[in-house]
Amino acid sequence: MKDRVWFNPSTPNSHLLLCKSLCFESVYQFREALRDFHIRTLRSFHYHRNSPTRIIVWCSQREHGCEFYMCASRIAHERTVCIKKCNMEHICPSSAENTKVTTKWLAKAVEPSLRADPRAPVDALIKNSKVKFVVDVSRSVAYRARRKAIKVVQGDQKEQYYRLRDYLQAVIDANPGSRCIVTTFEDLENPAPTPRFKYMFYCLHASKEGFLNGCRPFIATGRDGNNNIYPIAFGVVDKEDGDSWRWFLTQLRCCIGSGSKFGTYTIISNTQKGLLKAINEVFPDSPQRFCLRQIYANFQFAGFRAAELKKLVDKASYSFTKHGHELGMTLLKAECEGAWKWLDKIPKDTWCRYAMDYNCKTDLVVNNLSEVFNKMILDVRAKPIRRMFEGIRTKQMIKRQKTREKIEYSRWMITPNYSEKLEENKKYAKYCEAHKAGPDIWQVSSGEK
What we know:
449 residues; alpha+beta
């Protein structure tokens, strides 16, 4: 045993080290090494004999004079396979059209690159295979190889669903007070041996407490005191409809309550299918806002596409005064009465700043907070479910730690965002005059400015 030389597949350029008396752990390892050698040297071979105990191979160009051959056999009473005879020199011409490239071999070859960039497309893998290995692979082979490699890199999608409850229990054990729930379809007439996934809700205790004690009562994702997004909870559902929205909002209400501490929560949405009705049922007292971008998209779909009309819609929406809003609507009516009628049907407190509820202390009229969150998790959304949730949780953890460090190093008693705005606006103070109007009441005027 001490005198044996063993094949090590992790050795760089191990395919070049094949030689007489080299030992392999099994016949399967020998076959993989043989295939790898010929693919990387741009040659091909034929099995003259291929059995569990003895393998003899020749060059596929043997009839044209190539003398390459190899004979390996299994050592008695062992799984070990040893090369007994060989002539490793190919004198035939190389070829990029290698029939020995399989999806299994290619998956193993591209695995390192997919670990670095799991979103690499099939075309990129085909190109990299051509550059690195000088082999031509079909799109179907590359697609299947990518799928196999992704399963190794990210885990099996199906298997991760089997371990979902274990994962959520681990989250709850590590974060006591978290609400992590998964539900399945129930078919009492035809019960299945394994349940089928339906809904999942995920809210960490720290996220809940941070929102309740440090954020404004505004839900798209939450918004903290520094005007940064603050994700509260997220979920996975089989489809987006009224039932799934109602279930998710019910779980959310169980976590954060109905907003009685602040009065009510304000909820802004893109008016997704079934969402408005679900909000009215679960948070009946909460003021609602509609995303202005979504309103304008529907506005365009209704046939009102002129750039001038958009400016007037913005003027009517962003104005902080009723007079400014009415002026924008009057100009819109003069420009296009049909557009004015369409827009005037939407309740003003859902899209006009002047009419919005001010309890939540934010004047947002667009739901770009959700879009920012979607962009933040874009690289993990396509991963298997457990890895996806771990990726989102890790991103939240890193972001909050960076925010914490930024606040700790701030020299202000208020958040950095508003301290910068305060400094920016101090230059206008020289134009202001303050007159006391009563106990703790001041009149501030800015003259012509």
